[in-house]
Design goal:
Layout: E1 12-15, H1 22-35, E2 40-44, H2 50-63, E3 68-73, H3 76-86, E4 89-93, E5 102-108, H4 117-129, H5 145-157, E6 166-170, H6 180-185, E7 190-194, H7 213-222, E8 226-230, E9 237-241, E10 246-247, H8 249-262, E11 270-273, H9 278-287, E12 291-294, H10 298-308, E13 312-314, E14 320-322, H11 331-345, H12 348-355, E15 361-367, H13 373-386, E16 394-400, E17 406-413, H14 416-430
Parallel strand pairs: 2-3, 2-4, 6-7, 6-8, 11-12, 11-13
Antiparallel strand pairs: 1-5, 4-5, 8-9, 9-10, 13-14, 15-17, 16-17
Length: 432
């Protein structure tokens, strides 16, 4: 009997061929067909395990009477766009920013949006009741028109002329490798593209939005105006300015929110998560922009936007949600909009530096098996006393990852020396 499966913060994720198997993928397809009556669009990233898992999903859909459409290599937000435009749901085979040996299965609701909890529960029940496959999985023809459809939609949303910019694109050897060059070439921008040759195992490997050192070096080497890095499934974006300074989701949210406010298109306030830098709160308070804070996770951001009837929100990690434009976070859309902002308002670094001051903050990832919560809090209180830090001037945030076997410890304070000391001591305690 198959082990009971539950969805995590972003679908089902684990080690490919061990936890994420073709049996599980088939049963997920079968389950989605039980819950939805609409066409199901299936896309996948460039991991070596992804094509077989996608064929298993498509077989499960077929065997339970659903119409499954194979999009081939496709970004997660691209699947969402096609689902919205063609009136269906989506299944994505990807582990996002994780290494190649992991994989995942994500279900997008009708119109490409995040599943609500009730629908996710229904899929989970159907999944755990679904049969295992009895036959091998047939090849399914790829819908070749879908990629052009996705590119055209993004260009319709951001039709800007970017010919004045030299942009470096880091595709993370992931799903964007098949589409990013084409998309940005249509803007007239001068392009330098890196990490766009996936081999099944190099996705996110020292590249993309979680490893931007190579992008920084390339931006400085070619004297580009802007660097843009997505992750393996291209639902997040981290930028690099012309001086080689990394600009994360906090920077981008501040700049976009201020621009939207000035153009009267903000549509309310800004939704951020508990990881947002304290400096962001200070900067937006000065502009009068209202902020709602949620727990970490782009689904929480989307839910808060819907509750508030607001248009814009995001995460420090680079998941930015433009609710009026797309059903989910899209790194390529964010990149187009950021490049347009640079054309209209000037260099990214100058905009960011004049808009806010980042409070010293560090994030330390600790293996879940070795994490000791009591030791972390004891260290925090010891150093807070040593540095005479007031409780209002510091924040310790601890969160187990929903997608990896780690615990994330975030420390920020007005006193940068305290932040450095805490980070160093914590790493010597757990990472030595």
């Amino acid at each position: 009997m198959a082990m009971t499966v539950r969805f995590g913060t972003d679908g089902i994720r684990g080690r490919a061929s061990d936890e994420i198997t073709t049996d599980l993928a088939y049963r997920l397809g079968f389950a989605v067909a039980s819950v939805f009556s609409s066409p199901v669009f299936v896309g996948y990233d460039t991991r070596e395990s992804s094509p077989a898992l996608a064929l298993a999903v498509l077989a499960g859909l077929r065997d339970n009477g659903a119409t499954g459409i194979n999009l081939g290599y496709f970004t997660t937000p691209g699947v969402a766009v096609i689902a919205r435009q063609r009136g269906g749901v989506g299944v994505v085979v990807s582990a996002s920013h994780n290494p190649y040996f992991d994989n995942g299965l994500k279900v997008l609701g009708l119109g490409g949006g995040k599943l609500d909890h009730a629908t996710e529960d229904a899929v989970t029940v159907a999944l755990n009741a679904a049969p295992s496959p009895i036959d091998s999985f047939d090849e399914v023809v790829i819908d070749a028109a879908a990629e052009d459809e996705y590119v055209q939609q993004l260009r319709n949303l951001v039709p800007s002329d970017l010919s004045s910019l030299h942009i470096v694109l880091d595709c993370a050897n992931g799903a964007a490798s098949h589409v990013a060059r084409e998309l940005f070439a249509a803007t007239g921008a001068r392009l330098t593209v890196i990490n766009d040759h996936p081999d099944g195992r190099n996705i996110n490997e020292q590249c993309g939005s979680t490893h931007v050192e190579g992008l920084v070096a390339k931006v400085l080497e070619v004297r580009a105006d802007l660097g843009l890095a997505v992750d393996g499934d291209a639902d997040r974006l981290i930028a690099v300015d012309a001086r080689g300074q990394v600009r994360n989701g906090d920077d981008l949210m501040i700049l976009f929110a201020a621009d939207f406010l000035e153009r009267d298109t903000l549509g309310g306030g800004l939704v951020v998560t508990s990881m947002a830098n304290l400096g962001l709160h200070h900067a937006l308070k000065d502009t009068g922009i209202a902020i709602v804070e949620t727990d970490v996770g782009d689904r929480n951001v989307v839910m808060a936007l819907e509750e508030q009837s607001w248009s814009f929100g995001g995460e420090q990690s680079g998941h930015l949600i433009f609710r009026d434009l797309a059903p989910t976070g899209d790194g390529l859309l964010t990149g187009l909009m950021l490049a347009d902002l640079v054309v209209r308002r000037g260099p990214l670094g100058e905009q960011a530096d004049s808009s806010w001051q980042r409070v010293p903050q560090q994030l330390i990832n600790i293996a879940r098996e070795s994490y000791d919560d009591e030791a972390v809090h004891l260290l925090f209180e010891e150093l807070r006393a040593d540095y005479a830090i007031e409780t209002a001037d510091v924040r310790l945030f601890i969160r187990p990852s929903g997608t990896e076997p780690i615990v994330r410890v975030m420390i920020e304070a007005l006193n940068g020396e305290f932040v450095d000391a805490f980070s160093a001591r914590l790493q010597s305690l757990f990472l030595a």
